[in-house]
Design a protein that fits this description.
Helix content is 27%, strand content 20%. By secondary structure, it is an alpha+beta fold. The chain has four domains: 169 residues, no CATH class; 81 residues, 2-Layer Sandwich (Threonyl-tRNA Synthetase, Chain A, domain 2), CATH 3.30.980; 258 residues, Rossmann fold (3-Layer(aba) Sandwich); 76 residues, SH3 type barrels (Roll), CATH 2.30.30. The strands form five sheets. Strands 10, 11, 12, 13, 14, 15, 16, 17, 18, 19 and 20 form an eleven-stranded mixed sheet that branches. Strands 23, 24, 25, 26, 27, 28 and 29 form a seven-stranded antiparallel sheet that branches. Strands 1-6-7-9-8 form a five-stranded antiparallel sheet, with helices on one face. A hairpin with a 5-residue loop joins strand 19 and strand 20. The longest helix has 31 residues. 36% of the residues are buried. The chain binds adenosine-5'-triphosphate. Adenosine-5'-triphosphate (ATP) binds next to helix 7 and strand 20. Adenosine-5'-triphosphate binds next to helix 7 and strand 20.
Length: 786
Amino acid sequence: MTKTPPQQSATRFTRSSRIPSLPPRSRTWIRDSFCLATTGVGICAAAPLFGYSDLPMPASAGFSIAAAYTAVTGKRRQLRDADVDEVVEKLCPIVGLPEATRAVLSTARWSRREWPGHPRKLTVHYDSTQALNDETWLADICEIFEHQGWGFFELDKHDPARRRLIFTSAAEPNQETPDSDQVTRAKRIVTQLLGPTAAATAIEVDVETGDVTSMEVRHELGPKLASEGYRTRVERGMSATLPGRWRAKWNLETDWVRFELRTAFPDSIWLPKTDLDPDADLLASYDSVEIPYGIDEDGNEVVWRPAIDPNMMLIGPPGSGKTVTAHNLLVNFSRRGWPIWVLDGKYVEFLGFQDWPNVQVVATTIEQQVALVHRARDLMEFRYQKIVTGEATETDFEPVLVFLDEWAEFRGNVEDWYLGVKSKGGPRLPPVITMLASMARKARTARVHLVFGTQRPDAQYFFGDMRDNFAMRISMGRLSPQGALMMWQSPTIGTSVPRKCRGRGTTVTDNYQPIEIQCYRVPDPRKTRPDSFEADLLDALRPPVTRHPRLLIVPPDELPDLDATDDTSEPAPLTYFDYIDAEWVLASDRPDLDPILRRANMTHEVDHGIASPTALLGLLGGGAEPTVEATRAPNDHSQPLTASNDASDPASFLDQLSAPHPGESSSEDLESFRTRLALVKEPVGMEREMSGGESDFVDDRSVSHRTDEDQYGPVHDVRAADVALGDLLLIDDLDEWVVVDTDPELDIIDDSLLSLTWRSDSDEYGELALPDSSYVSIRKPLQVSV
Ligand SMILES: Nc1ncnc2c1ncn2[C@@H]1O[C@H](COP(=O)(O)OP(=O)(O)OP(=O)(O)O)[C@@H](O)[C@H]1O
């Protein structure tokens, strides 16, 4: 890249073709004592009006050195005066004096090296301020000095009160090379987009192609640019007319903008294998922990500092890369020696990390998950108490990372499950779902940090201090304008993230400014083939030492049947409180309950009995009869578990948790399975209780089960004027649906047209200018339930 110097710097003036033709020398001169009086240096005071008389020859033969010296200096002065008069003659018309007068110019600091020398300081007195409006005026004056052989000058001082300009000699300015065709075109486009007063002050070009790669421009558009849509249109205008994709960095206060070529985000970036000290002291290193999770458009790494922002909110619809980003965080923290607890709301997303070093527990059943949240809360309370009683301070606690992943899914499941375990007179709602806000609040002091994951922004997560306690956020994939408002307090941010770019999302900078990022990628150990690149990467990322042992949550024992009188008597069912009091043990102490050991014993051969979907229907014959349990949904927890924790059947409890429930296979079971996939009702009162009655509540569960998987409604043909930001728009030429990424506005070049700016699923940008009455096909983002 080379930098082309600006055409004009602030005080340097270059040649101009606008110098007026100068009058002939035969002008009437006006002797003006002002010249002598004001200059002190008074070079012009002794100058004759016209012509220059020869020096008188000395009459005496005694020609002395003194006389010779006088003759030389006299001659020098004469020649200088002649030069000055020539300059004065040219200068007067330029500074607005109708007749030539020596008062217009004072000269000083003459050099003596050359003959007769030249001045290095010039003071020009002007008459009319009108000349100030002429932008080449100063350059014209400098040009006169240069033509006189006095060299180059630059303006040193302008004294408007005394109407004088002081010039001092300067180095020769860089010779301007004529603009290349590309530069000329880029300048023309900038003036079309930013108005005729826009001037490029710096331009960078690619040395090989000559294409412009950046431009800095001063303009006078002022308030027009307050509109984000206007600014986007200018950007799009650059991209549409110059090679490459452009972005603009605006300084609205100084009327300055820098246009530069965008660099494309990479499709995929694996988490870098940075060297970390596996033995770093958790307490000593806590404050400085930085978790890198992606890069911005300029390749800058974005990091989470949990000591500053204790909790992270991670939002993302299915397929956007939310799980991979959560894995990326998990691996990062595990490498820094943090103990990790995981609530896996989808049951299978974190299975691959169940035996990852420093991951202590992955709760994959509703009972384990409820127990985990209560334990995390208890840990916080325990630590709080220790601080209150003076037994400890915050700095004494090792940090813990708790994933609450797919919280909305978990919440729906837990409400159903609770109906079967609610004790008589127990709270109406499962206590676990109301704990989130208080846990988020206490995270910093207790050093129990939350990564809270859910599919869509929901008003209740952005209410009151929840907003502050989840200042660190990532939204993966594209948000609806409604979701963007909640997540980023702007209906535009994150709404145009291209859907085909997995791992692309929006996060906040250190100054909490939203930016688009590409998240790092981490392989899922469960889906990684041996001897692959991914397996090698996992080996490199795996913490070399396990500092925190694996834990298991022991299923509670059945309660004794205290009033058993006969065989028909049933033991009292376990209640919610029995499950949350479940014992936690070291995994090494209960191999009988260890899912890792069980999985290690899997044969990895395909069981044709369960491979076919028909297995569910029991029509295969030959040993593929479905069990009663197989007909139940894995997350069907409407009945409390009555798992027998029989030592003779060590893994029975985990088996039951992960799939089967006792009971009859019936149409009722299947029905219950179907209804589970339908909308999960918001518990009465809960919504208002938690959102404070706000009306922009987004029930993400209700949305996640719609048939319209892509979250947009049916196709409508509407007038261009009725298109809104966030709509999907069909671009006929491309036969592609794109998202409208600014509010439609008048086109900045042709204001009889309406301009629609867009971004495609594969990260192409564009603008469509069309009459506002013409029709286009759109799909509106689904209005989520309120
Ligand atoms: N950072 C990334 N870079 C590149 N590809 C990614 C990235 N993250 C995810 N992907 C790709 O997208 C796929 C889906 O990712 P992921 O499972 O994380 O989505 P999700 O949002 O959790 O969806 P779901 O909820 O359905 O699991 C991954 O299998 C991977 O191929």
